[in-house]
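re the bet — no i am not wrong, look at it urself. input seq straight from the record:
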Amino acid sequence: MAYVTSTLGNLLQQTAFLNLTWGNYLMIAVACVFLYLAIAKGFEPLLLVPIAFGMLLVNIYPEIMARPEDMSNGVGGLLHYFYLMDEWSILPSLIFMGVGAMTDFGPLIANPISFLMGAAAQLGIYMAYFLAIFLGFNGKAAAAISIIGGADGPTSIFLAGKLGQSELMGPIAVAAYSYMSLVPIIQPPIMKAFTTEEERKIKMQQLRPVSKLEKILFPIIITIVVCCLLPSTAPLVGMLMLGNLFRESGVVKQLTETASNAMMYIVVILLGTSVGASTSAEAFLNISTLKIVALGLVAFAFGTFGGVLFGKLLCKLTHGRINPLIGSAGVSAVPMAARVSQKVGAEADPTNFLLMHAMGPNVAGVIGTAVAAGTFMAIFGV
């Protein structure tokens, strides 16, 4: 009988229920909310489901993220090895390759002024950088946090790793991906507040056809120009353009299909679960995290504002030929931000079709966010 009692006591001690803190329970509740938003509401489920589940796992069984040196058998936790690929910038770069293979750069090529709207939407990044400095973060931490304003999770992870801000990577990545998934909720009020109904009803002329030669030359030229100016952007911009070259060359269909499907989804699983697993209660529930989440929201709001404001300027300069709503797509949440531009425009006029026009600034925003990250790396000598 004593043996049975002892055995049952040992089993009870090994359960998570007796070892979890209130913080763990809170993070488990947050994970469940994310799963609800992803599954029931459809908010970026490809991102939120693995992130939320990683969050759930690490707060039930923290050793799933343990380093080999912290384990008695010298073998690390499963998700520790996934997370290393985040720190080493492998997974963010592969995500960019997949995005490039899935994305048509034609709207950007057909309307090069989209580059300017994509650049204007990076306003939130630089606003957040100075605000983070004001709130007490050091320069590298402020730079890593500010990239949330580009609504680009892979670039946020990439820069945090390059600047040695691994301890902030979890909160930064979760904030970035959360705001990416909440684009349809956050952006429309800002877009409507700074545009008139007449501006939202503006119909834009159909984009010119883009030749196959232009589409092939574009990723090659962008890689040469951007990577020569900022060599540190090569892992992101280079992989983005390589994926797009796969797509547009038409001679490597197998590579295009692999990069845009199987590889892309495998990387999303690895990156999502490892990012979620970096949000243990001990690492996530602190004042710094609250500051990061708040700064991310400010950055994203100002990014949307900057794009819309520049769109209004171009609307005036072109005598009403550009709908300012497409400027909001300059944040790099592809293609969600472009869809939001289309949705808000269609609310003002159901016959208005802005999606392809908005894809130009949207793709430019991806490049712009990578350039912003490269600029910070150059500033800090990384």
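see?? The two ends are 64 Å apart (CA to CA). told u. also The CA atoms of residues 219 and 241 lie 5 Å apart. so pay up
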